[in-house]
Protein 1
Amino acid sequence: MRMNITSMSTKGQVVIPRDIRHTLGLVSGSKFAIFTDGVRILLQPLRPTESKGFRQLIKDGEAAIEKAKKKGGKQ
């Protein structure tokens, strides 16, 4: 694991150092999932296939909710 130091702008923007961007293949417009446990922040790059899969999971979940609502209303 490597460590670099960066700072946050007044707009909450953080620069990811060039060597890390290069290692991870990050480009302008890259998307990230951001997690926190209240003490630490974790950025996880989302690859195009991962974000498409995530969108599909959301659609499937919404469809399941609608199906459950319809089934519950028929009882």
Protein 2
Amino acid sequence: MKLLVTGGTTFVSKYVASYFVKQGNEVFVLNRNTKPQVEGVNLIEGDRHDLGDKLRNSTFDAVLDVTAYRAEDINYLCAALGDVGQYIMISSSAVYPEYGEQPFLEEGERAENKFWKKYGTDKIEAEDALISARPNAYILRPPYLYGPMNNVYREAFVFDCAKNDRKFYVPGDGEMKMQFLHVRDLCKIMENILQTKPEDHVINVGNADAISIKDWVTLCYACLGKTPAFVSVDSTIEPRKYFSFYNYEYYLDVQKQQKILKDTISLEEGLRESAAWYLEHESEVNKKPYLQFIDEELEL
């Protein structure tokens, strides 16, 4: 297939571009060419907000829109596109308000989430813009994405703690559950959508089972042959100062996804891939000062 991937140089969009190249597709990436490109892609250099006629005479079997965060991102790109078959947008579980009934269903309320705030409301507006412009488009709402090429300091932070034999500080009792999806599974879901054109057009995507913080951290440490010692942190201390996630538990109902992709990569396998990549690409991760805060404010 001839595919247009927005972005293509950072984490999800980079992995998506690489995956579909390896599957034998003709992949075009749309970005400003400020970072290295994935091997095998065709670059369309430009800003999605100012494309002029760059795409007007191009045809694509599908657009895989990984970098739409606001309504204007959708509006400018859709106005610039020529002939396009399918359109898949990566949205977010942040569109669901934290007070909503769980597990979140695709048909449930969308509203501001107090943890994600503007990021979530901007995604809502982007979804609405896409539905207006292309009613047959597909919208995917993932929870936390992970895997190789992740430049966000999430699992990499835990790997650092494991590498240095550090204790791991968890909010409260560490039993809060989190839901993940490996970025390769996201690609498989998109691939299956392109092939089967499912009836459902708005789809929650994620592993069927959530996992507690402690169990997830334990799996991360195991990737480096280590076992964590946990320290509980009082709830009065903001978790994002020492931990890479909000202290916010939620579940997505992924029954619609399971019609498309039933079995997802196990966290054990996925985290091993993540650790192997990180040990070779540590400099590509945007680290945050969690360890500094722990050493200065929490370490006893």
Protein 3
Amino acid sequence: MKYIIAIIQPDRLEEVMQRLEEKEIHLVTVTNVMGRGRQKGIAEVYRSHREAGTLLKKVKLEIAINDAYLKPALDAIIQGGRTGQVGDGKIFVMNLDECIRIRTGETGGPAIG
């Protein structure tokens, strides 16, 4: 079992979700977050003054997945999230030691779904 955390551009969310659906990956948690990477924020003009913004709006996807779905999930996120520009995001993959479905008490891979 793996746990995927992906940070993507907000405008790429629908494309990523569509590609995940095509790979039959339906269980996703999405959170609006703020952060910065190599682009180090952006500069904006506010009331005729130039102000540097240090945090950008991003979207975080969290997916608990069985090993057989790892490559399709990663491919879907990369294909849906890539624009070729700095700031497209990152994907982190971690081992998932345990998953427990609260309703039934199932554990392991079957609990993921």
